[in-house]
Every structure is written in C-alpha cells, then in structure tokens.
Amino acid sequence: MTTIKNDAWSRFAQExxxxxxxxxxxxxxxxxxxxxxxxxxxxxxxxxxxxxHEAIGLPRIRVFGPSQLDYEAxxxxxHSKYDGSNLVEWLxxxxxxxxxxxxxxxxxxxxxxxxxxxxxxxxxxxxTACGVPPRGLDFYSFIAVSGFTPFGIHSDPEPSFIFHxxxxxKTVWVWENDTLPKLPDNREISLHTDKYLKxxxxxxxxxxxxxxxxxxxxxxLFRNNGPAVFLGMSYYREDNHDELLQAISTLVRRSENQQDxxxxxxxxxxxxxIHRELDRRQSQRLSRGHLGPYRILPVELFNVDLPxxxxxxxxxxxxxxxxxxxxxxxxxxxxxxxxxxxxxxPGKVLRAVDLQKLTDNPSEGNxxxxxxxxxxxxxxxxxxxx
Length: 386
Ligand SMILES: [Fe+2]
Fold this sequence. Notes:
4-stranded antiparallel sheet, alpha+beta, Jelly Rolls, JmjC_dom, 18 strands, 3 domains, 8-stranded antiparallel sheet, binds fe (ii) ion, JmjC domain-containing protein
C-alpha cells in the first residue's frame, strides 16, 4: 500500500540529504495518514500488553501536562492495554487528562505492520536517494489534544522530520539560527512563547498528510489545534566520538574486569575488539533497515485460527532460518526453504491450515505460522488474537 508520495519524498531526500540543513515543507506528502496512524495504534496495542511486558519489557511512553511530565499518567498508559478504539479518547480516559499529550518512543520496534510500512514508504526510498543514515533512524509519535507542546520552544541535536497525520491541524513555528541562535542564559527551552512568536522566521499550519523538516539546532515550537497524531523521525548524523564511546561502553559492560576500566579498554583496543564492535554495530543497523531493533513478540499474542497478512519486508530463508530485517527465527526441519518462500508472498493472506498441508504434522504447520508472525514477516491484529 502506498502511504507516501514516492516522487516527492525521493526528490526531497536527494536535494536536501544527508545534511537536511534547511527548513522544508511538503504539502500532502503522506497520502494515507489514517493508515499510518492506524499502524501506530497497532504498536501501542503490543506495547501496552502485559504479556509483552512480561516477555520483552516496557515501552517508553511519557505523558505530559502543561509544562510538566506526569509520571502517574505515564504509568497508567503503559499499564492499560490499548483496545484499538479512538486513540486520543482512550488516552484521555486512561490518564484522566482532557489536555493529554503523549510521546511514544521507538514506535517502529513494537509492531511488524508499522515496521514494514515505515521501511518501504520512508526509509528505503530515502536511503536510495541520499545514502545510508550514518547512525540509524529513530521513530516516535506525539499524540496530543490542544495547546503548545509542554516543553515550549526548544531545539533538537538531530534533524526532525514531522509526518503530520491529523485529524486536526498543528501549527509550527521555526526560528533560523541568525534570528534565535540561543535562548537567554543558555536555557534549553522557553515557555515564554508570546515573547518570541512574532520573531519566528517560519510559521506552518500542518494539515493531515503534510510534512516538515526542521534542521538540527533550530528552535521550534508546536501548537495543537485539536486532537492529532504525528509520526516523527530523527536522523542520526555522523558522530564518530559518540560511536566510539558506545562501542567501548558495550565492550566494558561485557568484560569480566569491571574494576580496571582503563585496562579493559586498552586491551579491547590492542586486540582489535573495538574495530569489530564498531563493524558489528554498523552491520546490525544495516540488516534491520536502519530502524530500531525489532521486538520478537511472545507466542501467546497470536492465534493460529485467524488469518495473517504477509507483509512487504526484506525476507530471507536459509537452512530453516527465516530472517526479516535483522531478526531471525527457526522453523520446523520438515518444511523446506522452498516451501516457505512459495507461501510467503507480500500482500497474501496466509492461514495456518495452508501451512499444515506442507507437513503430515499439523503442529509443525502451526509452528511455522507462528514463527512468521513472531519474526515480523506476517501480521495479525493482536486485538483480535487476544
Ligand atoms: Fe523538537
């Protein structure tokens, strides 16, 4: 399914990437905003499911009130299973906040559906147009009702890409560096919005489907004009210093010698471990399509009696191992790689009974059906499966 105007998106990435140094607005870039918002809903369903928490851990979802982080409401959202109803109304009910504003990080890591949509619509054309993002991408969503963003005027260290999904509009102000190079006293944010609004260099009212690129370090401010959702993307530019620190820190954490950190780092440098760790990090990002790591969902989430949709994802099967965007899972040995490839066709509806025909043992067909779901090759609404 096409969700983004491929030509306009590729042209934008080619002309402005990989630096993305100018403010760029594209009207109606997203052709199916409600479809993308729906995939965010699927992520939230999984991320708030207690069975997923038990197996994988908790999501990062923060709920804000005006100029504050609301810990109680954040806890309430994480621990109330989203039922697929109207997203904003559900958030309001769960948090008891009419003015709810929620941030959901790593939104692409919780559902195979959003992952395939984001990869095929946004990431793949962008990489073709302007190359590999040096340190990967991060997707998040803001869901809010009204008023200014709780942290007011702020800037981000990476370029921000806003895919506005609606249903209401959102107003965005952006200041160029010459106009507002920094806030007084080197403050990181300002809630004195009235004081600055007139001096903004850009003002956009984003309708559902509109896109905005805000370069790194530019101060900006959002105002919600009604209930709305957006999908955000951070593009991590090259930072060799940070990359090296992360690699060393991973090696030190893995090391048995936690007491003598300097020596551990020295040994890792002298025997080539740091090089290997740097290479490993990069190849992991490449294999998972520059997205955050996919969370293999627990078996209990899926139902063998319900159909699944084969997703449009990079898919490989070799020696009874299925690999999908950096994750792999084993399938029963009685089923050949050729059979798996034959049955896995993007867009096709797959049923466990189809796979049972591949083997005399129905439980092996069922195991393959579940394996495809778990690795993110297929999709089944967990709402129906629960
Ligand atoms: Fe921002």
